[in-house]
Amino acid sequence: MDYFDLKLGENSCHFFLALGSCASLVYVTPVKDQTAPSGQAAFQEMAADRKIKPKKVVCDLAFTEETWQRFWNAQDIEPLPTRSRTPSSNRAERAVQIMKRTSYTQWMSARVDPETASVTLRGLCAKANMARNSQLRLAGKTPYEMAFEVRPQPLFDADAASPSELVPD
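^ thats the sequence. predicted structure below, dont judge the formating
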């Protein structure tokens, strides 16, 4: 679990990220700020959305403060804090870098495309989550498929596409 900031136009937006350890399933959602109440609400939303109840969470020291400790105790979850100076090349930090890039790309394309101009930041995060969780891994399965044992809907259906959609401009 981690927070990250992303500068979108004139504004800086805050995001909450959770990464599943077994399937590398990513969940990103915008939050109001990087305070415990915002993070806890995002965590509960993720758990309800994914229908999961983790027993343990690996998190950095920001998620082990007293407010978070009370939250973890109430949820019967054991936090496993990482040490300070954890290498920036670990899986969670790499997921943050990838999701920053994906979210920014989604936001830039939404600004250009008039059909997606009205999409909310939460909607863009949902698209970024689906794009990231639908990519095949070395095992030949997607994170979504490994976590839920269900194949995700294809992002592009070549059988139903018209010839103009299959040929680049």
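Helices lie at 36-50, 66-75, 91-112, 121-133, 143-148, 163-166.
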